[in-house]
Amino acid sequence: MLVTSADVASLDALLIRWESAEYVATVFVILACVGEFVAEFTEIRTKEWRDKLGKMSLLVLIAALSLELVSLVRTNNLSGREIALLGIDLQQEKQRTATAESNSAQAQYVAAKANERAGKLEKEAAELLRDPWAARNDYIDVVLNRADENVADFLGKHAARDLNREDQIRALKMLEMQRHAMLMYTSCGWFFDELSGLETVQVVQYAGRAIQLARETTGTQQLEAQFCEKLREAKSNVREYGNGEEIYKKWVAPAIVTADKVMGHYAISSLFESYGDKTKIYCYTVEREQYGVETEGRVRLAVGRGRVRSEITKEQTPISFAVLFARSLCAAAAVLC
Asked: What is the pTM (predicted TM-score) of this model?
């Protein structure tokens, strides 16, 4: 059971109402007792008036005692529930503390790895860029305008030498990796107490993208495994989500975009809409080289070949594809790089 502050506040407000009712009932009990005393033991006014006062005081006393008894039962019940909720909340607070400590350790680990990677990046990027850190700082000009001409001007300004096509792509990937390495420190992802929250998952997605680019540019294969090992120490407050590694594998890893996934999207959607020779799909462009569709009854088969071009890294990947669709079934696509 996940207890929120709103649950405790609502129960507390209800408890205050019943305690107030108990106090009011006590006041009426006192007034009724005073009335009984006046009616039985004084000579105030007439005997008839005192008799009426005595009867009225008795009725008020019975009603007040009834309300006081009900209020007492309700306040005891609500107090017990509130104590139980506070106990659960205390347990959750312990879990949150443990999670926060785990996140802190994770952040320190990531920072250490980032510093380690930064040193390697500086050494590797220095082969391509005159001043890697100046290039990283100026990279915002590319982020704001990814037109080929602007990217060419940027590389012309910062390149350590004439870069061929492969070197240009590698340099852009390194800079993009640095961008995501900075994005993964976005503060909103680190001060929330639940790992499966949107903010934390988004921050881990930035880290996942940085790891993907590091693997592509340097051939480093163990970064993801090391990252997941550390994420495993961060526990979720939601039992079904387990820990940070499970959340990474559930939401982050499947969301990592590759050229073959883009072509798979293009292949399936081409059966339902008409594409030209060039098609923009988010930050990718698919350039179609060959394409054909065959229809037989309720079955359609599309076969083609094209290039997937990233508008961010400018990398182009040739891919062939085939997609089969039957109206009574889902579409099945195969891509071959």
From this structure: 0.67
